[in-house]
């Protein structure tokens, strides 16, 4: 296999096991996630605030728990943390399947969504860190890109598989599949043989360790700027995904199109992740320019009533979304020491997922008053502003910028 090939990380047995478990789990997640959105749409009569609240319940735990999870990933066995999280997800998905079969309530969906979000928050730093432990340094960009691409491939496959289940109201089947997928992933990860990561010997408690991770990021420029760029995209851009069911009904006049919009976004994102993964030297400037392009595409998406134009714009949105995030994640992985990897990547998780609930709740509330199209146009302007600011900053910094 070519040393520069995008698939070079698959040469490593431990990464193949991790990657296989990731693909299986993410496929189950997206089938479950689309079904969860569909069930909330049904129970809430497509209330944009309730739909945004569900989205936030899944991601809000990352804002609070990811820094603690990062400390755990640097202090304890990363493999065991990941297995425990997969098993917890399997149990929660099984419970969700039972509730869906016997009669679900909005409050139950929100509570279980929050519990799942907590397990995702703890799994994230350990998963990111162990991926770096499973490959050589030269193959790190390939490992990050492949996981990003797989995430988006499952975002295509998952909605396609979920669509008939949502259309026929078989939500319990979708949640049951996610439970089985998580169990399978736990089994695959349990077969990994990875060496222990350097033990965090920082004195003090959890808060002191979190601060040390932040200090480490500050000492590795442009790590903080990369985290800020990811946070800006999450608040203004990623949050729009929560509004897709409302957008499909209010703007395009066909609610059922939202699953296909998600699949289109994921297809573009998969291409973005693969293209970015071939770049061994990601920079802040590249990420900032892609964020500007994201804002332009989102503005087009928010302003059109044409189904064809909306899908084309969302394809570009997806491409830029994961091109930005994959580049930033690879940049951070290259900058940090392994002893601090879990904590720094937990900050990335906060920036990516933890800040998204702020945007989704704000966007959902705004959509109630000004309409979803106008709210999305405001989000597009926010992405443009962050991209321009970071591009200007990158011009004055070192070669990593």
What does this structure look like?
By secondary structure, this protein is mainly α. It has a single domain, classed as MFS general substrate transporter like domains (Growth Hormone, Chain: A, Up-down Bundle). Helices cover 79% and strands 0% of the residues. The protein contains 15 helices and no strands. Helix 1 runs antiparallel to helix 2 (48-75), helix 4 packs antiparallel against helix 13 and helix 11 (284-303) runs antiparallel to helix 15. The two termini are 31 Å apart. The model has no long low-confidence stretch (mean pLDDT 86).
Could you write a compact summary of the structure shown?
This protein has 401 residues and is mostly helical. The protein has helices spanning 13-44, 48-75, 78-102, 106-133, 140-167, 171-190, 206-218, 223-236, 244-250, 258-277, 284-303, 307-335, 341-354, 356-370, 372-394. The longest helix is centred in the N-terminal third of the chain and has 32 residues, at 13-44.
Keywords, please?
mainly alpha; Growth Hormone, Chain: A; 79% helix
What is the total tally of β strands? 0
| Class based on secondary structure composition and strand pairing | mainly alpha
Termini separation (Å)? 31 Å
Q: What would the principal axes of the Cα set say about the shape?
A: globular
**What is the CATH class name?**
Mainly Alpha
CATH topology: Growth Hormone, Chain: A
- Structurally, the number of domains stands at 1
Q: Could you state the order of secondary-structure elements as H and E?
A: HHHHHHHHHHHHHHH
CA-atom Rg in angstroms: 20 Å
Strand content: under 5%
CATH second-level architecture: Up-down Bundle
């Amino acid at each position: 296999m070519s040393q520069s090939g995008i698939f070079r990380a698959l040469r490593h047995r431990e990464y193949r096991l991790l990657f296989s478990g990731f693909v299986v789990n993410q496929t189950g997640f997206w089938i479950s996630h689309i079904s969860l959105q569909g069930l909330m749409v049904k129970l809430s009569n497509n209330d944009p605030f309730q739909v945004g609240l569900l989205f936030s319940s899944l991601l809000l735990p990352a804002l609070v728990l990811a820094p603690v999870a990062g400390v755990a990933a640097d202090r304890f066995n990363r493999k065991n943390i990941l297995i425990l999280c997969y098993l917890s997800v399997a149990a929660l998905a099984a419970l969700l399947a039972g509730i869906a079969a016997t009669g679900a309530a909005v409050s139950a969906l929100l509570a279980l969504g929050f519990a799942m979000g907590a397990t995702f928050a703890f799994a994230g730093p350990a998963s990111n860190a162990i991926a770096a432990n499973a490959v050589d340094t030269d193959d790190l960009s390939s490992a990050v890109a492949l996981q990003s691409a797989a995430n988006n491939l499952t975002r295509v496959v998952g909605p396609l598989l979920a669509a008939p289940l949502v259309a026929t109201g078989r939500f319990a089947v979708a949640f049951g599949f996610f439970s089985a997928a998580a169990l399978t992933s736990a089994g695959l990860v349990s077969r990994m043989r990875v060496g222990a990561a350097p033990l965090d010997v920082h004195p003090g408690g959890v808060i002191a360790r979190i601060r040390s991770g932040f200090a480490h990021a500050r000492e590795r420029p442009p790590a903080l700027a990369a985290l800020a760029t990811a946070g800006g995209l999450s608040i203004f851009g990623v949050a729009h995904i929560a509004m897709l069911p409302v957008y499909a009904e209010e703007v395009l006049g066909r609610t059922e199109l939202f699953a296909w919009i998600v699949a289109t976004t994921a297809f573009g994102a998969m291409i973005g992740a693969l293209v970015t993964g071939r770049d061994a030297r990601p920079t802040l400037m590249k990420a900032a320019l892609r964020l500007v392009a994201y804002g332009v595409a989102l503005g087009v998406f928010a302003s059109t009533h044409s189904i064809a134009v909306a899908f084309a714009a969302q394809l570009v949105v997806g491409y830029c979304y994961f091109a930005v995030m994959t580049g930033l994640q690879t940049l951070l992985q290259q900058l940090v020491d392994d002893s601090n990897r879990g904590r720094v990547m937990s900050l990335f998780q906060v920036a990516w997922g933890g800040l998204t609930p702020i945007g989704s709740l704000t966007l959902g509330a705004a959509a109630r008053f000004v309409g979803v199209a106008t709210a999305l146009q405001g989000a597009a302007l926010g992405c443009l502003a962050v991209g321009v600011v970071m591009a200007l900053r990158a011009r004055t910094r070192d070669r990593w910028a």
